[in-house]
Amino acid sequence: MPENQRRIVLALALGSATAALISIAASQILMGLAIAAMLFFRVRWQAPPFWPALAAFTALTLLSVAFSGNPAAGAGQVKKFYVFTILFVIFSLRPVIAEIRVMVIAWAGVSAVSALIGVGQFAGKYQQARDRGLSFYEFYVGDRTTGFMSHWMTFSGEQMITLLMLLALLLFGGWKRGKMALWLIVGLLGISLLLGFTRSVWLGAAAGTLYLIWFWRRWMVALAPVALAIVLWINPGEVRARFLSAFQPRGDNVDSNRHREVTRRVGWEMIRAHPLLGLGPGVVGPAFEKYVPSDVQRPLPVGFYGHLHNVYIHYAAERGIPAVFALLWMLAWVLRDFARAKPDFVIRGAVAVLLSVILSGWYEVNLGDSEILTLVLAVIACGYSRVRCSGSPERLTA
Asked: Which of 29, 76, 138, 312 makes a 20 to 30 Å CA pair with 259?
């Protein structure tokens, strides 16, 4: 296809990924325009190498919906497959490394503004707690900063993905212009993540960052405990209390450890009862009470019970064990292909993002979030633009 047409479609697709940091509706509108442009320009659609795993996950999800006791409840999850089109569009267009740099810098700019909003929200909530004479921890943990998003989990997950891609660009991308400004954004995103109090994202961000540092200056990994000790000593906004709560449950009504324990136990009960196709997408939340083990203490801990707060247990309970194996097959396939590729900032960043999402998924249904899924798929598609696949030459020109 002519280069000017490719750039138009790619701008819409990468714009869709960037818009997910602000509005999922705007992101999906841009994705629709990108699809329309591909059809208008008659661009040949291509599937990434791991398409058999993705096809298996899709087919098993549709089977789960079909055999569910409430197929209508799964309509939302079926519609969510529209998000996956960004993977095929970007993969078909094979962005060059300079175009991926532009996308990452755009993510950094938008995320920086969102982080500033989040810091402002944190300051406001801190003042509100003081004015009311309340414990800040208890006041804040159930209503945290959200930036541009409607929920703190989405906000923190997006900040994590942007931080890791930006860090990969700075460490491995040979980027010189405005480097100091980008490092300041890295610091701002780090502060935003700390003040977000989202422990699963702390874990994922730490793993992804350590992976990047390992391949940049391996000896600096040994400084990680020192950095952690400094943060806990400074203790901005009671971060120390939030960190320690993962190992020393508070025992109060804001302790999420017991809540997570209950959701995991209920998930295992659902999986044992429906191992092959699960209860069906959209059914786990409404059926939750039915599967609570009799020995679980009542009342249940304060928390959200619409999903199981673990993407692997939730998908197994919702769509069946084979569907989770298909998901893991897909993630393993992508990581294997990236591990075999010639490393550059895109490959390093993509692996860091995948490791962070895989780890944090043990504590949240992160891939069920359209905004997070959009960013992850965009990162994977960009990673494959740096991998030789399907017999096509790799685009290595900048």
From this structure: 76
Cα separation, 143 vs 139, in Å, equals 7
- Please give the Cα distance from 369 to 152 (Å, whole number): 12
CA 62 to chain centre: 23
Which residues have CB under 8 Å from 105's CB, separation 6+?
166, 169, 182
Give pLDDT tens digits for 26-77.
Answer: 999 999 999 999 999 999 999 999 999 999 999 999 999 999 989 999 999 9
pTM of the model: 0.94
Q: How far from 129 is each of 30, 235, 237, CA to CA, in Å? A: 40, 17, 12
Q: How far apart are CA 14 and CA 103, in angstroms?
A: 6
Domain boundary assignment for the chain: 3-250+315-384
CA dihedral 31, 81, 357, 168 (to 10 degrees): -30
What is the C-alpha separation between 81 and 77, in angstroms, rounded?
7
Retrieve residue 280's tokens: 């069906």
Burial class (CB in 10 A: 0-12, 13-18, 19+), 332: middle
Q: Which residue has tokens 């960190």?
A: 243
Give backbone dihedrals phi and psi of 108, rounded to 5 degrees, phi first.
Answer: -60, -45
| Phi, psi angles (nearest 5°) of residue 212 | -65, -45
Look-up of token digits 């999402």: 357
